[in-house]
Write a structure and sequence with these properties.
The protein is α/β, with parallel strands linked by helices. 32% of the residues lie in helices and 16% in strands.
């Protein structure tokens, strides 16, 4: 909404306007509660991009989605997110899996729990940390209880990302869509293994 407000008329002394895009999904329903709002919002973004001097996308996938959905009048500039590698510290024994995400439907944490339940059959000492807050917290905790994983899954809330990565072996991200996830980039820089879905926006580390 800030980008829309910034595009409103500002008089003859209008400054140069630059926007950075990092939250557009190919699947419209990810960020729209109703299909009826999709086309009007596409037209709003098309109109406001005409007033911006430059649009920056955090990945080529983001730029491509902008072009297809919002039809900007000039090409977007792609500047990938940058990262700094955190330090590593000794970890506890056993496989440690980390999720850094809102506890929201588009993050598919229910699928992560199902997969982790299968993993524990071969790796009973494995542990999963679902870091973050969100509207699905109670539902996810209930699902953990149904799966019999209460002693293996932690819900610490918000955490320091660098410190959390230093204590885990694998970052898991099964999102419906991500543009250029800092969490995945930081995980790769920190030397963690990565388990990710195939909809994560031109990130060249889709490894498991």
């Amino acid at each position: 909404y800030a980008d829309v407000v910034a595009a409103l008329p500002l008089g003859k002394h209008r400054p140069r306007l630059v926007t950075t895009e990092h939250g557009i999904a190919r699947d419209d329903i990810v960020y729209h509660q109703s299909a009826r709002t999709v086309r009007p919002m596409e037209e709003v973004h098309h109109a406001r991009l005409r007033r911006f001097d430059t649009a920056i996308a955090v990945s080529q996938a983001t730029a491509d989605a902008m072009q297809d959905k919002w039809r900007p009048s000039r090409p977007s500039t792609v500047i990938p997110n940058g990262i700094t590698a955190p330090s590593r510290v000794p970890k506890q024994p056993g496989l440690r899996i980390l999720s850094l995400a809102r506890l929201a439907p588009e993050k598919r944490l229910d699928a992560l729990l199902e997969g982790f339940a299968l993993l524990t059959k071969d790796h009973p000492d494995a542990r999963l940390t679902l870091a973050g807050k969100g509207e699905l917290e109670a539902d996810l905790k209930a699902h953990v209880s149904r799966l019999g994983l209460t002693d293996k899954v932690a819900f610490p809330g918000f955490v320091d990302a660098d410190a959390a990565m230093a204590e885990h072996d694998v970052l898991a991200m099964l999102s419906v869509w991500e543009n250029s996830s800092y969490a995945l980039l930081d995980a790769a820089a920190a030397g963690l293994g990565v388990v990710a879905s195939g909809y994560l926006g031109n990130i060249p580390l889709m490894i498991a």
